[in-house]
Amino acid sequence: MAREIRTFGDPVLKAAAAEIKDVDDKLVRLAEEMLVVMYEAPGIGLAAPQIGVQKQLFVYDNDGVTGTIINPSIKESSGEWVYEEGCLSIPGLYVEMVRPKQILVHGWDLDGNELEFEADELWARLIQHEFDHLHGVLMFDRMTPDQRKEALAEYARLQEQPAAPAKPRRLRLK
Ligand code: ZN
């Protein structure tokens, strides 16, 4: 049974997730379940806290390549890139946000292999967004005070309206 995506206001989204010590079958099944939820949403990334699991992992679809990253860290970042970012836990809201353009990522995959790779633009944005979820940080926390005020008001307006049809072909970062 698919789990529900937690939305803004749920305290689980503000808590830091625990580091994962062992990659076992249970974790593999969790990642499989998360991918189902992510694709159903639909989104291109989903972090475990978004379905209420306080563990440091996220799943992604990077331009058709699917995977899981465990205990991610961002070792270096550079440049700036503007992107209209969205979040499955803040449905309907898209805000142009500046974040680093390139990052150096460290983590592990589901086979227990250590990973270290560079990412840029959308792929880097996805990882930074999911990384934030693992530390209880939401898009609102990354906004300037003016942006946040406007975005919170916009989100409140969205909550009052009946669900709008999804915008076509819009990428949503989970
Ligand atoms: Zn998100």
Strand order of the largest sheet: 1-2-3-6-7
CA gyration radius, whole angstroms:
15 Å
Please estimate the helix content.
25-40%
Largest sheet entry: 5 strands, antiparallel
**N- and C-termini, Cα separation:** 20 Å
The total of beta strands comes to 7
Q: Give start-end ranges of low-pLDDT stretches.
A: none
How many distinct helices? 3
Bound molecules: zinc ion
**What oligomeric state do these chains adopt?**
single chain
- Average residue-wise pLDDT: 93
- What string, H for helix and E for strand, traces the elements in order? HEEEEEEEHH
Shape: globular
Query: What structural class is derived from the secondary structure elements?
Result: alpha+beta
Residue share in β-strands: 25-35%
What would you note in describing this structure?
With 174 residues, this protein is an alpha+beta fold. It is 26% helix and 28% strand. The chain has 3 helices and 7 strands, in the order αβββββββαα. It has helices at 25-40, 121-133, 145-160, and strands spanning 45-47, 57-62, 65-78, 81-86, 94-99, 102-108, 114-120. The strands form 2 sheets. A 5-stranded antiparallel beta sheet has the order 1-2-3-6-7. A two-stranded antiparallel sheet has the order 4-5. A hairpin with a 5-residue loop joins strand 6 (102-108) and strand 7. The radius of gyration is 15 Å and the shape is globular. The mean pLDDT is 93. The structure holds zinc ion (ZN). Residues 87-89, 129, 133, 174 line the site of zinc ion.
